[in-house]
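Table S5 (text form). Sequence records supplied for joint modeling of the two-component complex.
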Amino acid sequence: MREEARLSPPGVIQPTAAVAAVGVEKWYGVYPALRGVDFEISSGDFVTIFGPNGAGKTTLLRLLAGALRPTRGEIRLGGAPLDYDEPAWRARIGVLSHQTFLYGQLTAAENLRFYGRLYGLAKLDGLIERRLAEVGLWDRRDDRARGFSRGMQQRLALARTLLHDPELVLLDEPYTGLDAHAARMLRRVLEQLKDGNRTVVLVTHNLAEGLELADRVVVQVAGRWVSDEPRSAIDAVEFEQLYTARVGGAE
Amino acid sequence: MRGFVRQLLTIAGKDLRLELRSRERLVSMMTFAVLVAVVFSFSLDPGVEARTVAGAMLWVTILFAGMLGLGRSFALEREQDAMMGILLAPLDRGALFLGKLIANLALLLATEVAVFVVFALFFQLSYWKTLGSVILVVVLASVGFMILGTLFSAMAAGTRLGETLLPVLILPLLMPVVIYAASSTQRLIVGRPFAEVAGSVRVLVVFDLIFLIVSILLFGAVVEE
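The corresponding C-alpha coordinate record, covering 476 residues in total, follows.
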Protein backbone atom coordinates (compact mmCIF):
# COMPACT_ATOMS: atom_id res chain seq x y z
CA MET A 1 0.00 0.00 0.00
CA ARG A 2 1.30 3.43 -0.86
CA GLU A 3 1.29 5.35 2.44
CA GLU A 4 -0.27 8.84 2.68
CA ALA A 5 -0.71 8.73 -1.09
CA ARG A 6 -3.40 11.30 -1.83
CA LEU A 7 -3.59 13.40 1.26
CA SER A 8 -3.77 17.10 0.52
CA PRO A 9 -1.93 19.69 2.58
CA PRO A 10 -4.18 21.11 5.32
CA GLY A 11 -6.40 23.91 4.10
CA VAL A 12 -5.89 23.25 0.37
CA ILE A 13 -9.31 22.13 -0.84
CA GLN A 14 -10.21 21.70 -4.47
CA PRO A 15 -13.27 23.71 -5.44
CA THR A 16 -14.80 20.55 -6.92
CA ALA A 17 -14.54 18.61 -3.64
CA ALA A 18 -17.95 17.30 -2.66
CA VAL A 19 -16.85 16.92 0.92
CA ALA A 20 -13.60 17.71 2.69
CA ALA A 21 -12.03 17.57 6.13
CA VAL A 22 -9.49 20.17 7.17
CA GLY A 23 -7.34 19.34 10.18
CA VAL A 24 -10.21 17.48 11.80
CA GLU A 25 -9.70 16.15 15.31
CA LYS A 26 -12.31 14.62 17.53
CA TRP A 27 -11.76 13.94 21.21
CA TYR A 28 -14.15 12.20 23.60
CA GLY A 29 -12.91 13.62 26.88
CA VAL A 30 -9.23 12.68 26.94
CA TYR A 31 -9.60 9.97 24.29
CA PRO A 32 -8.76 10.93 20.69
CA ALA A 33 -11.06 9.34 18.08
CA LEU A 34 -9.61 11.30 15.15
CA ARG A 35 -6.17 12.87 15.20
CA GLY A 36 -5.85 15.45 12.49
CA VAL A 37 -7.52 14.12 9.35
CA ASP A 38 -7.25 16.05 6.07
CA PHE A 39 -8.84 14.91 2.87
CA GLU A 40 -11.11 15.84 0.04
CA ILE A 41 -13.50 13.65 -1.87
CA SER A 42 -14.43 14.63 -5.40
CA SER A 43 -18.01 14.73 -6.58
CA GLY A 44 -19.17 11.37 -7.91
CA ASP A 45 -16.47 9.32 -6.13
CA PHE A 46 -17.23 6.11 -4.25
CA VAL A 47 -14.76 5.97 -1.37
CA THR A 48 -14.42 2.96 0.93
CA ILE A 49 -12.80 3.38 4.33
CA PHE A 50 -11.49 0.24 6.00
CA GLY A 51 -10.18 0.05 9.51
CA PRO A 52 -10.17 -2.01 12.70
CA ASN A 53 -12.56 -1.50 15.62
CA GLY A 54 -11.83 1.75 17.40
CA ALA A 55 -10.15 3.33 14.37
CA GLY A 56 -12.63 6.22 14.46
CA LYS A 57 -14.44 5.32 11.23
CA THR A 58 -17.94 5.81 12.61
CA THR A 59 -16.83 9.04 14.30
CA LEU A 60 -15.53 10.28 10.95
CA LEU A 61 -18.80 9.40 9.24
CA ARG A 62 -20.82 11.14 11.96
CA LEU A 63 -18.65 14.21 11.59
CA LEU A 64 -19.22 14.20 7.81
CA ALA A 65 -22.97 13.83 8.45
CA GLY A 66 -22.94 16.74 10.89
CA ALA A 67 -24.13 14.57 13.76
CA LEU A 68 -20.95 15.42 15.66
CA ARG A 69 -18.90 18.58 15.70
CA PRO A 70 -15.12 18.38 15.40
CA THR A 71 -13.04 19.30 18.44
CA ARG A 72 -10.64 21.03 16.02
CA GLY A 73 -10.71 21.67 12.28
CA GLU A 74 -13.74 21.77 10.02
CA ILE A 75 -15.85 19.75 7.62
CA ARG A 76 -16.71 21.34 4.29
CA LEU A 77 -19.61 20.37 2.08
CA GLY A 78 -19.32 21.62 -1.51
CA GLY A 79 -16.52 23.94 -0.37
CA ALA A 80 -18.50 25.62 2.45
CA PRO A 81 -17.88 24.86 6.13
CA LEU A 82 -20.82 23.18 7.86
CA ASP A 83 -22.92 25.74 9.70
CA TYR A 84 -24.44 23.74 12.56
CA ASP A 85 -27.00 26.44 13.38
CA GLU A 86 -28.44 26.44 9.85
CA PRO A 87 -29.91 23.00 9.09
CA ALA A 88 -30.58 23.36 5.33
CA TRP A 89 -27.36 21.58 4.22
CA ARG A 90 -28.48 18.45 6.05
CA ALA A 91 -30.90 17.78 3.18
CA ARG A 92 -27.85 17.23 0.92
CA ILE A 93 -26.66 14.27 2.97
CA GLY A 94 -28.09 10.77 3.42
CA VAL A 95 -26.86 8.31 6.06
CA LEU A 96 -27.31 4.54 6.13
CA SER A 97 -26.07 2.87 9.28
CA HIS A 98 -26.30 -0.66 10.72
CA GLN A 99 -28.99 0.94 12.92
CA THR A 100 -31.93 1.56 10.60
CA PHE A 101 -33.35 4.78 12.21
CA LEU A 102 -36.80 3.24 11.56
CA TYR A 103 -39.83 2.88 13.81
CA GLY A 104 -40.92 -0.73 14.08
CA GLN A 105 -44.55 0.19 14.84
CA LEU A 106 -44.85 2.24 11.63
CA THR A 107 -45.38 0.67 8.23
CA ALA A 108 -42.75 0.94 5.51
CA ALA A 109 -44.68 3.76 3.81
CA GLU A 110 -45.35 5.57 7.10
CA ASN A 111 -41.66 5.51 8.00
CA LEU A 112 -40.77 7.10 4.67
CA ARG A 113 -43.63 9.61 4.94
CA PHE A 114 -42.40 10.65 8.39
CA TYR A 115 -38.86 11.28 7.17
CA GLY A 116 -40.10 12.85 3.92
CA ARG A 117 -42.06 15.42 5.92
CA LEU A 118 -39.05 16.20 8.10
CA TYR A 119 -37.10 16.89 4.89
CA GLY A 120 -39.99 19.00 3.55
CA LEU A 121 -40.32 16.92 0.37
CA ALA A 122 -43.05 17.67 -2.15
CA LYS A 123 -45.01 15.00 -4.06
CA LEU A 124 -44.17 12.58 -1.31
CA ASP A 125 -46.50 9.77 -2.36
CA GLY A 126 -44.77 9.44 -5.73
CA LEU A 127 -41.32 9.53 -4.12
CA ILE A 128 -42.27 6.87 -1.59
CA GLU A 129 -43.59 4.61 -4.33
CA ARG A 130 -40.43 5.06 -6.39
CA ARG A 131 -38.01 4.41 -3.52
CA LEU A 132 -39.93 1.41 -2.19
CA ALA A 133 -40.07 -0.06 -5.69
CA GLU A 134 -36.31 0.44 -6.10
CA VAL A 135 -35.58 -1.60 -2.98
CA GLY A 136 -38.24 -4.20 -3.79
CA LEU A 137 -40.60 -3.34 -0.92
CA TRP A 138 -43.53 -1.67 -2.68
CA ASP A 139 -45.70 -4.75 -2.14
CA ARG A 140 -44.92 -4.59 1.60
CA ARG A 141 -45.59 -0.84 1.96
CA ASP A 142 -48.43 -1.32 4.45
CA ASP A 143 -46.58 -3.82 6.64
CA ARG A 144 -44.99 -2.68 9.86
CA ALA A 145 -41.19 -2.50 9.80
CA ARG A 146 -40.99 -4.61 12.98
CA GLY A 147 -42.16 -7.66 11.01
CA PHE A 148 -39.45 -7.29 8.36
CA SER A 149 -36.35 -9.47 8.18
CA ARG A 150 -33.01 -7.77 8.87
CA GLY A 151 -32.32 -7.58 5.14
CA MET A 152 -35.70 -6.01 4.38
CA GLN A 153 -35.25 -3.50 7.19
CA GLN A 154 -31.89 -2.54 5.76
CA ARG A 155 -33.39 -2.09 2.30
CA LEU A 156 -36.13 0.07 3.78
CA ALA A 157 -33.43 2.05 5.57
CA LEU A 158 -31.71 2.52 2.22
CA ALA A 159 -34.97 3.84 0.75
CA ARG A 160 -35.12 6.27 3.70
CA THR A 161 -31.53 7.31 3.05
CA LEU A 162 -32.18 8.06 -0.62
CA LEU A 163 -35.70 9.49 -0.25
CA HIS A 164 -34.54 13.10 -0.43
CA ASP A 165 -32.06 12.36 -3.24
CA PRO A 166 -28.90 13.33 -1.32
CA GLU A 167 -25.74 14.31 -3.19
CA LEU A 168 -23.54 12.79 -0.45
CA VAL A 169 -24.38 9.29 0.81
CA LEU A 170 -22.65 7.98 3.94
CA LEU A 171 -22.80 4.24 4.58
CA ASP A 172 -21.74 2.94 8.00
CA GLU A 173 -21.27 -0.84 8.02
CA PRO A 174 -24.45 -1.39 5.98
CA TYR A 175 -23.78 -5.13 5.61
CA THR A 176 -23.76 -5.84 9.37
CA GLY A 177 -26.10 -8.70 10.23
CA LEU A 178 -27.12 -9.43 6.63
CA ASP A 179 -27.04 -12.94 5.23
CA ALA A 180 -25.44 -13.58 1.83
CA HIS A 181 -28.71 -13.15 -0.09
CA ALA A 182 -29.61 -9.90 1.66
CA ALA A 183 -26.05 -8.60 1.20
CA ARG A 184 -26.28 -9.34 -2.54
CA MET A 185 -29.56 -7.46 -2.81
CA LEU A 186 -28.15 -4.50 -0.90
CA ARG A 187 -25.05 -4.46 -3.11
CA ARG A 188 -27.25 -4.41 -6.21
CA VAL A 189 -29.02 -1.30 -4.90
CA LEU A 190 -25.75 0.34 -3.84
CA GLU A 191 -24.38 -0.22 -7.35
CA GLN A 192 -27.10 2.06 -8.61
CA LEU A 193 -25.63 4.86 -6.51
CA LYS A 194 -22.57 4.88 -8.77
CA ASP A 195 -24.23 7.16 -11.27
CA GLY A 196 -21.43 9.76 -11.27
CA ASN A 197 -23.63 12.38 -9.64
CA ARG A 198 -23.62 11.03 -6.12
CA THR A 199 -20.64 10.95 -3.80
CA VAL A 200 -20.56 7.90 -1.58
CA VAL A 201 -18.44 7.16 1.49
CA LEU A 202 -18.64 3.58 2.74
CA VAL A 203 -17.18 2.49 6.08
CA THR A 204 -16.82 -1.26 6.48
CA HIS A 205 -14.83 -4.20 7.86
CA ASN A 206 -15.90 -6.32 4.91
CA LEU A 207 -13.00 -6.27 2.44
CA ALA A 208 -14.80 -8.04 -0.40
CA GLU A 209 -17.91 -5.81 -0.26
CA GLY A 210 -15.86 -2.69 0.30
CA LEU A 211 -13.53 -3.23 -2.65
CA GLU A 212 -16.33 -4.30 -4.98
CA LEU A 213 -17.81 -0.84 -5.46
CA ALA A 214 -14.99 1.53 -4.52
CA ASP A 215 -13.24 4.05 -6.77
CA ARG A 216 -10.90 4.94 -3.93
CA VAL A 217 -9.79 2.90 -0.94
CA VAL A 218 -8.69 4.32 2.39
CA VAL A 219 -7.34 2.57 5.47
CA GLN A 220 -7.87 4.32 8.78
CA VAL A 221 -6.03 3.21 11.91
CA ALA A 222 -6.12 4.87 15.34
CA GLY A 223 -7.83 8.01 14.06
CA ARG A 224 -5.50 8.58 11.09
CA TRP A 225 -5.64 7.81 7.39
CA VAL A 226 -2.64 5.56 6.84
CA SER A 227 -3.36 4.66 3.23
CA ASP A 228 -5.36 6.27 0.42
CA GLU A 229 -5.25 4.80 -3.07
CA PRO A 230 -7.37 4.54 -6.21
CA ARG A 231 -9.12 1.19 -6.49
CA SER A 232 -7.53 0.63 -9.90
CA ALA A 233 -4.08 0.57 -8.25
CA ILE A 234 -5.05 -2.18 -5.82
CA ASP A 235 -4.77 -5.91 -6.24
CA ALA A 236 -7.47 -7.40 -4.02
CA VAL A 237 -5.45 -10.41 -2.83
CA GLU A 238 -2.34 -8.37 -2.09
CA PHE A 239 -4.46 -5.70 -0.36
CA GLU A 240 -6.07 -8.27 1.87
CA GLN A 241 -2.70 -9.63 2.98
CA LEU A 242 -1.23 -6.18 3.61
CA TYR A 243 -4.40 -4.98 5.35
CA THR A 244 -4.50 -8.00 7.64
CA ALA A 245 -0.82 -7.54 8.49
CA ARG A 246 -1.26 -3.85 9.18
CA VAL A 247 -4.59 -3.89 10.95
CA GLY A 248 -4.10 -7.17 12.80
CA GLY A 249 -1.62 -5.44 15.06
CA ALA A 250 -3.95 -2.48 15.60
CA GLU A 251 -6.78 -4.78 16.64
CA MET B 1 -42.45 29.42 9.77
CA ARG B 2 -44.75 27.02 7.91
CA GLY B 3 -41.89 24.56 7.67
CA PHE B 4 -41.30 24.86 11.41
CA VAL B 5 -44.95 24.18 12.21
CA ARG B 6 -45.07 21.29 9.72
CA GLN B 7 -42.01 19.73 11.33
CA LEU B 8 -43.30 20.02 14.89
CA LEU B 9 -46.67 18.59 13.88
CA THR B 10 -44.88 15.73 12.10
CA ILE B 11 -42.96 14.87 15.28
CA ALA B 12 -46.05 15.17 17.51
CA GLY B 13 -48.20 13.22 15.03
CA LYS B 14 -45.65 10.40 14.86
CA ASP B 15 -45.44 10.13 18.66
CA LEU B 16 -49.22 10.10 19.07
CA ARG B 17 -49.69 7.59 16.25
CA LEU B 18 -47.14 5.26 17.84
CA GLU B 19 -48.82 5.65 21.23
CA LEU B 20 -52.25 4.92 19.79
CA ARG B 21 -50.82 1.71 18.33
CA SER B 22 -48.98 0.51 21.42
CA ARG B 23 -51.00 2.28 24.17
CA GLU B 24 -47.93 1.54 26.26
CA ARG B 25 -47.70 4.86 28.09
CA LEU B 26 -51.41 5.68 28.35
CA VAL B 27 -52.28 2.31 29.85
CA SER B 28 -49.49 2.46 32.45
CA MET B 29 -50.28 6.09 33.37
CA MET B 30 -54.02 5.50 33.72
CA THR B 31 -53.60 2.20 35.57
CA PHE B 32 -51.29 3.93 38.03
CA ALA B 33 -53.80 6.77 38.50
CA VAL B 34 -56.68 4.40 39.25
CA LEU B 35 -54.57 2.37 41.69
CA VAL B 36 -53.55 5.53 43.56
CA ALA B 37 -57.21 6.56 43.82
CA VAL B 38 -58.03 3.11 45.22
CA VAL B 39 -55.21 3.36 47.79
CA PHE B 40 -56.33 6.85 48.85
CA SER B 41 -59.96 5.75 49.14
CA PHE B 42 -59.01 2.97 51.57
CA SER B 43 -56.44 4.95 53.55
CA LEU B 44 -58.39 8.19 54.06
CA ASP B 45 -59.88 8.49 57.54
CA PRO B 46 -63.71 8.53 57.30
CA GLY B 47 -63.66 11.66 59.44
CA VAL B 48 -61.66 13.54 56.81
CA GLU B 49 -63.67 15.20 54.12
CA ALA B 50 -61.96 14.17 50.85
CA ARG B 51 -62.50 17.49 49.12
CA THR B 52 -60.39 19.24 51.76
CA VAL B 53 -57.29 17.26 50.67
CA ALA B 54 -58.26 16.64 47.04
CA GLY B 55 -55.74 19.13 45.60
CA ALA B 56 -52.78 17.28 47.08
CA MET B 57 -54.15 13.84 46.18
CA LEU B 58 -54.86 14.87 42.59
CA TRP B 59 -51.44 16.44 42.01
CA VAL B 60 -49.45 13.63 43.63
CA THR B 61 -51.27 11.25 41.29
CA ILE B 62 -50.76 13.47 38.24
CA LEU B 63 -47.10 14.04 39.06
CA PHE B 64 -46.16 10.38 39.35
CA ALA B 65 -48.39 9.23 36.48
CA GLY B 66 -46.75 11.91 34.34
CA MET B 67 -43.27 10.78 35.39
CA LEU B 68 -44.19 7.25 34.36
CA GLY B 69 -45.07 8.44 30.86
CA LEU B 70 -42.05 10.71 30.53
CA GLY B 71 -39.70 7.83 31.27
CA ARG B 72 -40.79 6.23 27.99
CA SER B 73 -40.93 9.47 25.99
CA PHE B 74 -37.69 8.82 24.10
CA ALA B 75 -37.76 5.02 24.32
CA LEU B 76 -38.92 4.52 20.72
CA GLU B 77 -36.19 6.82 19.43
CA ARG B 78 -33.59 4.62 21.14
CA GLU B 79 -34.82 1.38 19.57
CA GLN B 80 -33.12 1.70 16.18
CA ASP B 81 -31.32 4.96 16.94
CA ALA B 82 -34.19 6.83 15.28
CA MET B 83 -33.16 9.96 17.17
CA MET B 84 -30.02 10.02 15.05
CA GLY B 85 -32.17 9.80 11.91
CA ILE B 86 -34.23 12.75 13.14
CA LEU B 87 -31.17 14.81 14.08
CA LEU B 88 -29.64 14.22 10.65
CA ALA B 89 -32.71 15.75 8.97
CA PRO B 90 -32.83 19.51 8.31
CA LEU B 91 -35.00 19.90 11.37
CA ASP B 92 -35.04 22.89 13.69
CA ARG B 93 -34.25 21.59 17.20
CA GLY B 94 -36.98 23.89 18.54
CA ALA B 95 -39.52 22.12 16.31
CA LEU B 96 -38.31 18.77 17.60
CA PHE B 97 -38.69 19.93 21.20
CA LEU B 98 -42.15 21.42 20.68
CA GLY B 99 -43.31 18.33 18.78
CA LYS B 100 -42.25 16.04 21.61
CA LEU B 101 -43.77 18.48 24.11
CA ILE B 102 -47.16 18.52 22.35
CA ALA B 103 -47.29 14.72 22.28
CA ASN B 104 -46.27 14.42 25.94
CA LEU B 105 -48.78 17.09 26.93
CA ALA B 106 -51.61 15.42 25.00
CA LEU B 107 -50.96 12.13 26.82
CA LEU B 108 -50.80 13.85 30.21
CA LEU B 109 -54.02 15.80 29.58
CA ALA B 110 -55.79 12.58 28.55
CA THR B 111 -54.56 10.95 31.76
CA GLU B 112 -55.67 13.97 33.79
CA VAL B 113 -59.20 13.68 32.43
CA ALA B 114 -59.24 10.08 33.68
CA VAL B 115 -57.70 11.10 37.03
CA PHE B 116 -60.32 13.81 37.65
CA VAL B 117 -63.18 11.51 36.66
CA VAL B 118 -61.90 8.65 38.86
CA PHE B 119 -61.36 10.95 41.84
CA ALA B 120 -64.83 12.47 41.34
CA LEU B 121 -66.32 8.97 41.47
CA PHE B 122 -64.25 7.73 44.43
CA PHE B 123 -64.46 10.86 46.57
CA GLN B 124 -67.71 12.48 45.39
CA LEU B 125 -65.83 15.56 44.20
CA SER B 126 -67.61 18.11 42.06
CA TYR B 127 -65.73 20.51 39.78
CA TRP B 128 -68.71 22.00 37.95
CA LYS B 129 -68.93 25.32 39.81
CA THR B 130 -65.34 26.25 39.00
CA LEU B 131 -64.71 23.99 36.04
CA GLY B 132 -63.20 26.69 33.77
CA SER B 133 -60.76 27.82 36.47
CA VAL B 134 -59.79 24.24 37.34
CA ILE B 135 -59.08 23.51 33.68
CA LEU B 136 -56.97 26.67 33.40
CA VAL B 137 -54.85 25.77 36.45
CA VAL B 138 -54.44 22.14 35.38
CA VAL B 139 -53.45 23.06 31.81
CA LEU B 140 -50.94 25.73 32.92
CA ALA B 141 -49.32 23.44 35.49
CA SER B 142 -49.29 20.54 33.02
CA VAL B 143 -47.57 22.69 30.38
CA GLY B 144 -44.82 23.59 32.87
CA PHE B 145 -44.52 19.97 33.98
CA MET B 146 -44.20 18.69 30.43
CA ILE B 147 -41.78 21.42 29.30
CA LEU B 148 -39.34 20.42 32.01
CA GLY B 149 -40.24 16.75 31.61
CA THR B 150 -39.52 16.74 27.87
CA LEU B 151 -36.17 18.46 28.35
CA PHE B 152 -35.06 16.21 31.18
CA SER B 153 -36.35 12.98 29.64
CA ALA B 154 -34.21 13.78 26.56
CA MET B 155 -31.27 14.34 28.89
CA ALA B 156 -31.94 11.14 30.86
CA ALA B 157 -32.38 9.12 27.64
CA GLY B 158 -28.79 9.94 26.71
CA THR B 159 -27.41 8.49 29.94
CA ARG B 160 -26.99 4.95 31.18
CA LEU B 161 -29.14 5.66 34.25
CA GLY B 162 -32.06 6.71 32.03
CA GLU B 163 -35.43 6.48 33.76
CA THR B 164 -33.84 6.21 37.22
CA LEU B 165 -32.23 9.61 36.78
CA LEU B 166 -35.36 11.41 35.57
CA PRO B 167 -37.18 11.94 38.92
CA VAL B 168 -33.93 13.02 40.59
CA LEU B 169 -33.41 15.68 37.93
CA ILE B 170 -36.94 16.91 37.55
CA LEU B 171 -38.71 16.76 40.94
CA PRO B 172 -36.75 19.52 42.72
CA LEU B 173 -37.34 21.93 39.83
CA LEU B 174 -41.02 21.01 39.58
CA MET B 175 -41.84 21.57 43.22
CA PRO B 176 -42.90 25.24 42.86
CA VAL B 177 -45.26 24.35 39.98
CA VAL B 178 -46.78 21.45 41.92
CA ILE B 179 -47.24 23.56 45.07
CA TYR B 180 -49.00 26.38 43.19
CA ALA B 181 -51.07 23.91 41.17
CA ALA B 182 -52.13 21.84 44.19
CA SER B 183 -53.03 24.83 46.36
CA SER B 184 -54.99 26.51 43.55
CA THR B 185 -56.82 23.29 42.62
CA GLN B 186 -57.66 22.73 46.27
CA ARG B 187 -59.18 26.18 46.68
CA LEU B 188 -61.18 25.91 43.47
CA ILE B 189 -62.55 22.47 44.40
CA VAL B 190 -63.88 23.76 47.72
CA GLY B 191 -65.61 26.54 45.84
CA ARG B 192 -63.37 29.58 46.41
CA PRO B 193 -63.56 32.29 43.71
CA PHE B 194 -60.99 32.55 40.91
CA ALA B 195 -59.72 35.87 42.34
CA GLU B 196 -58.20 33.89 45.22
CA VAL B 197 -55.99 31.88 42.87
CA ALA B 198 -55.33 34.58 40.26
CA GLY B 199 -51.87 35.29 41.73
CA SER B 200 -50.92 31.61 41.56
CA VAL B 201 -52.15 31.43 37.96
CA ARG B 202 -49.91 34.37 37.05
CA VAL B 203 -46.94 32.62 38.71
CA LEU B 204 -47.69 29.44 36.72
CA VAL B 205 -47.72 31.49 33.49
CA VAL B 206 -44.33 33.00 34.38
CA PHE B 207 -42.90 29.55 35.21
CA ASP B 208 -44.17 28.20 31.88
CA LEU B 209 -42.58 31.04 29.92
CA ILE B 210 -39.24 30.74 31.70
CA PHE B 211 -39.19 26.94 31.36
CA LEU B 212 -40.13 27.20 27.67
CA ILE B 213 -37.44 29.72 26.74
CA VAL B 214 -34.70 27.92 28.67
CA SER B 215 -35.72 24.50 27.36
CA ILE B 216 -35.81 25.57 23.70
CA LEU B 217 -32.37 27.13 24.11
CA LEU B 218 -30.91 24.03 25.79
CA PHE B 219 -32.65 21.24 23.88
CA GLY B 220 -30.31 21.24 20.87
CA ALA B 221 -27.25 20.83 23.09
CA VAL B 222 -28.99 18.13 25.14
CA VAL B 223 -29.87 15.89 22.17
CA GLU B 224 -26.89 16.50 19.93
CA GLU B 225 -23.84 15.12 21.77
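Note: Chain B touches chain A at residues 3, 6-7, 10-11, 14, 17-18, 21-22, 76, 79-82, 84-92, 224-225 (CB under 8 Å).
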